[in-house]
UniProtKB/TrEMBL annotation, chain B:
Domain Protein FecR C-terminal: 255-323
Keyword Transmembrane recorded: yes
InterPro entries to which the protein is assigned, alphabetical: FecR, FecR_C, Ferrdict_sens_TM
Domain FecR protein: 129-213
Keyword Transmembrane found: yes
Designated name of the protein: DUF4974 domain-containing protein
Entry's Gene Ontology molecular function annotations: sigma factor antagonist activity
Amino acid sequence: MNKLINPQSAKDIYRQCFHDNFERLHRYAFTLLQDNEEARDVVQQAFIKLWQKRDEINLELAGRSYLYTTVQRLCINIYRHNKVRRHYKDSVLATHQEEYTDHQLENREISNRISAAMDALPPKCREIFCKSRFEEKKYAEIAAELNISVKTVEVQMGKALKIMREQLADIITISIILIAYFK
Amino acid sequence: MSLHQKIAIDTTLLTRYLAGEATPDEAMAIDDWLKEGTHIQEFERLQQSWQLIYGAIAYQAPKEDQEWAALEAALPATKKHGSLRRMVVRYAVAALITGVLLGAGLYTYLHYSRPVWQQALAGAARDVRKGVLPDGSGIVINRNSTLQYAADYNKDDRKVLLEGEGYFNVVADKERPFIVHNGALKIQVLGTSFNVKEDTGRTIVTVTAGKVKLYTEDHELIVAAGQTGTYLPATDELLLSNSVDANSISYATGDFSFQDMSLPDICHHLENTFGVQIILNNAQLSQCRMSAHFKDRPLSYIMDIMSATLDIEYTTKDSIIHISGNGCN
């Protein structure tokens, strides 16, 4: 009712929309890209597109859906584009394996705990988890490679993370307390 | 949002989300779910498990204000024919913004060497606190000590400000040096484990792995693994010794190595590590000596071994331990 008497400007609604969704969209984009900076760019782009379409789209009703869909689309494009680059990164990583391992040793205690937690996973579960986490493979790629259904990959991944969470509960609590204070 | 409530949120879906497999609808459903109750904590535990693995990039939420400013600047301006008045206003605003930016730049420049500090490890100061910094470096802060980190930590470097005593296990990163500020003393690291302790009139830096550089305005000193560097602020002196006292950092490592050590010295280390007070009931007890190695053992275990070895007895009350016995001759 208020809005009829004192209609908000499009900019105000847009600002509100940004406030409500920005951080969540960024986290979503991050899960898709695994890159904080790229995720920021994508979300910025999505909001610019929304602004350009503000006459066609009802910001209050459909703005949110539009943003999530646009973010996913942009991320998938970048992901495809990056595949080449990632391939390169893998080969670089492989040649510098020694150095990489060296860095790992610096944090031996935590590193050991994580290895132990991963060893606790059932073999099949571990194989799938490693493919996703270390080889950065998509669920569909893993399913095709192992000749299993995507659903199975999903279930095994969920199971793996659940076990990891339980195994590493003490380390995680510490980091969460820290993160809360780092914000 | 009733629209999304059909999507059930469970670990499998949350894992899908973290793995970058969630559809826009699923992501929206998860974000709605996260607004309720303690769901966010549940999610963060899962996210942490996901990110703990090496090589993983940790998620960092951007600053909304900054992002909004960037977005607003990028939005195509809504064109309207400018009247003279509007033009004047526009130039005035532009001039003002330029002024503010210049001012901000100058401020940043002048204060570049003075970082903005913020509190790192929370928790009661009477406890030993352990944690991991955003870059993965491990820290242990002793009782009555505080650690703060620079607001721009991990940007160009990794600055922390220590008061009291702390143990650092620094993740190697040649691009971003890790620098501990402790009064006028700075300790720079590329990747190593070391302990910094502010004592009365001196700061003691014990290096257990790698190499660090201690420096002040006028002096510098390289301290390698197995060495101890001491800073005396009164005379601005940096001293090097070719040994480390592993027992002095037991609060962090949980490692005790007593080699033919006198009972008072052993008690001193135990007091330091476990935050207790140990009283020898008679003077002869000072003659007792002992060799032992303990790794991650509780105080009660160590005390039991000691009493069996030295034929002494002890009683504990309110973190005060009394030791009695005939002494060792």
